[in-house]
UniProtKB/TrEMBL annotation:
It comes from the Bacteria. GO terms for biological process: L-valine catabolic process. This is Enoyl-CoA hydratase/isomerase family protein. It comes from Comamonas flocculans. Residues 14-346 form the Enoyl-CoA hydratase/isomerase domain. Pfam families: ECH_2.
Amino acid sequence: MQDAEVLTEVRGQIGCITLNRPRALNALSLGMVRTLFATLQAWDQNPQVLAIAIRGSNKEGPFGAFCAGGDIRFLHQGATQGDPRVEDFFTEEYILNHLTHHLSKPYIAFMDGVVMGGGMGISQGASLRIVTERTKMAMPETGIGLFPDVGGGYFLSRCPGHAGEWLALTGETIGAQQAVALHLADAILPSEKLAEVWEALGQQSFADGAAVQSWVASQTVAAGAEQAGVRAEFDQYFSLPDVSAIIAALEASEGDWERATAATLRQRSPLMLHVVLQQIRRARGMTLAEDLRMERDLVRHCFHLRPGESETLEGIRALAIDKDRNPQWKPARIEEVDPQLVQAFFTSPWPQALHPLARLA
């Protein structure tokens, strides 16, 4: 089983999961999604398993990288060739994301190294989200003409103030301190302690799941004073009514942060920036299940309902296929996006009762 993309074992009273696709930074394949779902469901119903812990691996061994997202090469190839597994991937991934938020026992995510996209989707539902000084966290989807899915609308919209809009639109990477400050992580564990804590989990005897989580939490360190530095700029600019107003205000400023942020936004898909801002703001009033249904609609539009004009396929092409890093966005500028084009993304292609995620509650 050491060659498997997901390693699972029960050690003592703990169900232990290791993502084991290090050369791809543990990017999720459809097989991995299916293994994770089946494993979590089985262990959640197993009284011998008091808690579940999940980690990633790098080329040298455990930890070092958590999960860089979904397998975008597979998604590009599958979508261009009409592979039905692309549809399966998103439906099953979102059902997995929903499950992680609704487990009946502690689910502890060791979010060391890269935690992006789909990696956020399988960790944000954890009851204890641990980061380290090596954590690089982001939802960078606007850079490939996509949107922060896997429940991103739900968890980003619940960041303090309008930080969620900033993270969703720019795709900026944050570290451990800021992750805690923005309510995307619960505690910090120095990376040199990861192996020790993980090994001890499988060797100790615990009274119940709460005791497991309490013990792990006791091994973490407090976030430093830096976490107070949640920038007022997030609210000043990213509370504005639309993307055109945000970019205009940023470019009118002479501040370094504002100019750098504006330059970043100018590199992203203009159309998807408008879609994403609506996604985050709509999701603030939604349950997780409602948000995931909206995101399933959005991803259908991204990959299948704009023939020959998929921002997502163009973004993946530029980043991972041709690697020219020069996507040809349509429209090319933020100011040129037709509001009707944006609204079309929020029209579900399915009747309510036949939605792929209709059963999520």
